[in-house]
Amino acid sequence: MSDNHIPAEQIAAQYRYAERLKELGIQKTYHIVTMGCQMNVRDSETMAGWLDKCGFTKTDAREKADIIIYNTCCVRENAENKALGNVIWLKELKKDKPELIIGVCGCMMQQEGVSENLKQKYPFIDLVFGTHNAYCLPEYIYTVIAEQSRVFEVWDVDGSVPEGQPVTRNSAVNAFVNIMYGCNNFCTYCIVPYVRGRERSRDEKDILAECALLRDRGVKEIMLLGQNVNSYMGGKSAFADLIKKIDTLGIERIRFMTSHPKDITDELIDCFAACRHLMPALHLPVQAGDNEILMRMNRRYTREKYLETVKKIRSVCPDIGLTTDIIVGFPGETRRQFEQTLSLVNEVKYDAAYTFIYSPRAGTLAAKYEDPVSMEEKTEWIEELIALQQHWTAETLKKQVGRVQPVLVETVSARSDNTVGGKTPRGHMVNFGGGKELIGRIVNVKITDAGKNTLKGTLEE
Ligand code: SAH
Ligand code: SF4
Ligand code: F3S
């Protein structure tokens, strides 16, 4: 076992707090609101696991909950504003329901001064904790309920691996599996390394055990999670080796995110051909198309290197679905440099792109860079980029029409009981006629229509 693991005894102590709460027989309902990325979604599932151990029950109606927890994100300013707006709204709810317990946690709490500020300014908040001490939730809830005192605790530790926590998953069909936490890359715009700490990997045996358990429970698809999965166990071939092992477990579908372009190895690329269950889909955030901007972002690859990687991947797996993240208006980016992003998008022809206007984050290097381009101009740029990407998304989807694809059915449509939805191997969402008994099954669907972002099809007998 790696020495960065949280001692089993500390996890066991949390189970005892949960047990004590359960013995008190307090019937409480809880509701967790999750903002941000898949990491937060997975963390919220762990928190739900702990609250269930405390004998509490989940409710989908926020207004009815006795405990509301906000799991926040701070990757861009609008994420933070949304979190704060939401929390302040709870004040009204608490007026009618004084016993309501309000907790705020997640990445935003790891920023300097945030916890202290919330403590002073918002007396209706009962509980604040960060990403590194989230495993202490039972203890904190115990303190709030049994000792009637507020808890504001954020740790500044640089990384540990918690094993053995409970989890209540959102889906029985697909599941997130963490393989590593934190990030060492320090892209100059990004707050994540500051709020999530240094990279640390879970032991392979723990990951394989979690995957095997999920398989035994009938989960069909797993998504391996890390801020940069390529540096699992320090990088090189470790991640490809892990995928090859997971591939033998017999889980139908394996995906992973996120992969940093600078660290993609040939071994990993080969997995797309060699591993039966690894789906032909890769999220490969490029961020920008201009070399000077890439350098100032500290991405540590060039446009040429990125395009070469894309070419290699497509030669191994021609039908792969590539998606990306792009930042528009990085400090000092000129119109001409932005046009390099447009031309890269035209070269790669992504299935989809997540586009963001640069948002300065306190404490990051780029926040100190000069940023002369106006928000109006950046808004025009991003609209241009979105329109271009929409064109390529539409083109990609059109090409799927007429194909028969194995679709893993995940949901019943909100609009009709007779329509279900699921994903193709490449990751395209398909809606087609069928009932809820199909959920969790992989069925052949003939693609008949392409919409803006999704496909339509008919079930093949
Ligand atoms: N670890 C992942 C990304 C995590 S953040 C990776 O490296 O790909 C998700 C995305 O948010 C990033 O890819 C980036 O496009 C965007 N992002 C991060 N910081 C940002 C900022 N300060 N302003 C705008 N977008 C940002
Ligand atoms: Fe942020 Fe870069 Fe790390 Fe991704 S790789 S989390 S963008 S610092
Ligand atoms: Fe994710 Fe936002 Fe934290 S993107 S890692 S939840 S800052």
Kindly describe this structure:
- The protein folds into four domains: 8-153, Methylthiotransferase, N-terminal domain (Rossmann fold); 171-279, Transcription Regulator spoIIAA; 284-399, Transcription Regulator spoIIAA (2-Layer Sandwich); 404-459, OB fold (Dihydrolipoamide Acetyltransferase, E2P) (Beta Barrel).
- It has helices spanning 8-24, 38-53, 77-96, 114-121, 137-146, 192-196, 204-216, 238-247, 266-274, 291-296, 303-316, 335-348, 375-400, and strands at residues 29-34, 57-58, 67-72, 101-106, 127-129, 151-153, 174-178, 180-181, 200-201, 221-225, 253-257, 281-283, 321-328, 352-357, 404-412, 419-423, 429-433, 442-450, 455-459.
- The protein contains 13 helices and 19 strands.
- The mean pLDDT is 96.
- Helices cover 36% and strands 21% of the residues.
- It is of the alpha/beta class and 461 residues long.
- A six-stranded parallel beta sheet has the order 2-1-3-4-5-6, with helices on both faces. A five-stranded mixed β-barrel has the order 15-16-17-19-18. Strands 7-10-11 form a three-stranded parallel beta sheet, sandwiched between helices.
- The radius of gyration is 23 Å and the shape is globular.
- The structure holds S-adenosyl-L-homocysteine, iron/sulfur cluster and FE3-S4 cluster.
- Residues 183, 185-187, 190, 192-193, 227-228, 260 line the site of iron/sulfur cluster.
- S-adenosyl-L-homocysteine binds at residues 75-76, 189-190, 192, 227-228, 258, 260, 285, 287, 325, 327, 356, 358-359, 361.
